[in-house]
Automatic annotation (TrEMBL):
Family matches, as SUPFAM superfamilies: 4Fe-4S ferredoxins (SSF54862)
Plastid found in the keyword field: no
Residues covered by the 4Fe-4S ferredoxin-type domain: 1-30, 31-60
Coiled coil spans: none
Protein name (database record): Ferredoxin
Entry keyword annotation includes Iron: yes
Region (Disordered): 87-113
NCBIfam families associated with the record: FdxA_Protbact
Keywords: 3Fe-4S, 4Fe-4S, Electron transport, Iron, Iron-sulfur, Metal-binding, Repeat, Transport
Example of a GO MF term: electron transfer activity
Function: Ferredoxins are iron-sulfur proteins that transfer electrons in a wide variety of metabolic reactions.
A Pfam family it matches: Fer4
Length: 113
């Protein structure tokens, strides 16, 4: 079992989950996070920390596509190990349906200054 980030993270990017992860398996894109399913130790501490309810166990229905999605972008994006402020419109976009098609960016997060 592993945990994965789903589309409700898109355009929100709350990072509460990052600060509790004991193995630093979160990776950061321009407007969302993903979990490396190989690095995840299935501890589950990140799931209740997500204000957007975007983290799911891969054992839930229809999660295989998200395992593949998370693995793909974890290989392309930089690791994130410290929490930061959410995106400016996070609260208003939380729960918006269809964000994968309308808001997702494949661009990695900008390097920290």
């Amino acid at each position: 079992m592993t945990y994965v980030v789903t589309d409700n993270c898109i355009a929100c990017k709350y990072t509460d989950c990052v600060s509790v992860c004991p193995v630093d398996c979160f990776y950061e894109g321009e407007n969302m996070l993903v979990i490396d399913p190989v690095e995840c130790i299935d501890c589950g501490v990140c799931e209740p920390e997500c204000p957007a309810d975007a983290i799911r166990a891969d054992t839930e229905p229809d999660m295989e596509k998200w395992v593949t999605f998370n693995a793909k972008y974890a290989a392309l994006w930089p690791v994130i190990t410290e929490a930061k402020e959410p995106m400016a419109d996070a609260d208003s976009l939380d729960g918006t349906p269809g964000k994968l098609d309308t808001h997702f960016s494949e661009t990695p997060a900008a390097p920290a200054l």
